[in-house]
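Supplementary Methods S3. Input chains for the assembly prediction are listed below.
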Amino acid sequence: KNEVEQSPQNLTAQEGEFITINCSYSVGISALHWLQQHPGGGIVSLFMLSSGKKKHGRLIATINIQEKHSSLHITASHPRDSAVYICAVNRPLNYGGSQGNLIFGKGTKLSVKP
Amino acid sequence: ETGVTQTPRHLVMGMTNKKSLKCEQHLGHNAMYWYKQSAKKPLELMFVYNFKEQTENNSVPSRFSPECPNSSHLFLHLHTLQPEDSALYLCASSQRGYTFGSGTRLTVV
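Predicted structure tokens for the full assembly:
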């Protein structure tokens, strides 16, 4: 079982719909990241969270540290939001692994139809 | 452009070839990473460099050889690769958050 699990794996929505992508993790973390990957392959960092909620335009990310769960919401979805959304977590700095080592989920492929 | 530039964007190489991937950032980040993304699998960390020093080699076969001559440049030297090494290779840098490059799509024939 992957340490970072995302659901759903695939999501198809109609333009304008409200979208939620979920991420659950099973390890202690210092931060959680939401990333966006377009078909060309490049990855853009959307959010880095350690608590609470962040908003950027139509995107909202929340995290519940006690429940080890995060959600990414897209309001008023648009075809240009079609991409793979990846959740990743940083282990705490006192963890024996490398500083800055990210553990990635498998991603959620979102397709928004006009 | 994210601030992390990878070249080439696409590469096809034979199993006996030697090639290099290049990554460059001028964001002032101290850490640089190579990741491999294969189909249907999460991104896998390959190498980490902090202040030009390699701090992690994630059990990567020796046919992949990283080089970090300075804090702004990172290379991945490739030789005698296998078809299963075909993947998207992503470079990233970090200071607090992460910045990723666009990746090199590698096909080994």
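Chain A touches chain B through 23 residues (CB under 8 Å). DSSP finds no helices and eleven strands in chain A.
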